[in-house]
């Protein structure tokens, strides 16, 4: 059973593409929303803008020293998807021993892979604003893990993890994503630490071939 057809619930929704894009806007990794609502958020925005040149400089510095080996990721949102704002991305290219090792470790369900952070390319999410964009997410489920969504709450191998906080924003009826399934071979279930993360809770498992790198925190 291919997740691309079964789990892309948003893609089969009858709302127009414009409505889906508007609903998804503001979800983690899609942009900044409501940054001027409070003074504290305004201060956070100032810090974000102040740090941006350093993130850019770091990218230029690393590129100059090690070519294509590393990249700096920078999350400008007020509520970051992951526990940090600036992170190191190590690209994992196709047909390399590094990629083979990563995919083998995921497929073997090695303990170190659960909770690992990866970069992936968004695909078949049902929201045009996300398609093709690089996203940094956490590996929450490995091949063979049981995923259960019940009453808009996520359970991984019968352990409750979190709620589906974007149901209202995505204009989805309560319980409409409730289901139970097993993460297929060569797939991972990804999430993030932020409540408003748009992730596998809404668009299902991600094929290994969508993973483009590993992610390490800087600050």
Tell me briefly what this model is.
The chain has helices spanning 3-6, 17-24, 39-66, 97-107, 200-203, and strands spanning 71-74, 86-91, 117-121, 134-141, 146-150, 153-156, 159-163, 179-182, 187-191, 206-207, 211-217. With 219 residues, it is of the alpha+beta class. A hairpin with a 2-residue loop joins strand 6 and strand 7 (159-163).
Structure description:
- The protein has 219 residues and is an alpha+beta fold.
- It contains 5 helices and 11 strands, in the order αααββαβββββββαββ.
- The chain has helices at residues 3-6, 17-24, 39-66, 97-107, 200-203, and strands spanning 71-74, 86-91, 117-121, 134-141, 146-150, 153-156, 159-163, 179-182, 187-191, 206-207, 211-217.
- The strands form 2 sheets. It has a 7-stranded antiparallel beta sheet. Strands 7-6-5-8 form a 4-stranded antiparallel beta sheet, with no helix packed on it.
- Strand 5 (146-150) and strand 6 (153-156) form a beta hairpin.
- The termini are far apart.
């Amino acid at each position: 059973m291919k997740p691309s057809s079964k789990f892309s619930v948003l893609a089969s929704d009858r709302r127009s593409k414009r409505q889906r894009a508007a609903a998804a806007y503001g979800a983690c990794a899609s942009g900044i929303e409501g940054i001027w609502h409070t003074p504290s958020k305004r201060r956070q925005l100032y810090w974000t803008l102040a740090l941006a040149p350093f993130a850019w400089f770091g990218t230029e510095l690393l590129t100059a020293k090690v070519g294509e080996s590393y990249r700096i990721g920078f999350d400008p949102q007020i509520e970051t998807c992951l526990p940090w704002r600036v992170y190191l991305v190590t690209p994992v290219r196709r047909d390399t021993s590094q990629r083979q090792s990563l995919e083998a470790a995921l497929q073997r369900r090695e303990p170190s892979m659960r909770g690992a952070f990866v970069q992936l390319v968004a695909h078949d999410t049902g929201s045009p604003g996300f398609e093709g964009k690089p996203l940094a997410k956490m590996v929450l489920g490995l091949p063979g893990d049981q995923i259960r969504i019940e009453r808009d709450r996520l359970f991984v191998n019968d352990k409750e993890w979190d709620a589906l906080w974007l149901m209202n924003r995505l204009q989805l009826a309560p319980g409409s994503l409730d289901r139970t399934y097993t993460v297929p071979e060569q797939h991972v279930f990804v999430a993030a630490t932020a409540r408003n993360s748009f992730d596998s809770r809404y668009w299902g498992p991600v094929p290994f071939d969508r993973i483009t790198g590993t992610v390490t925190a800087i600050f």
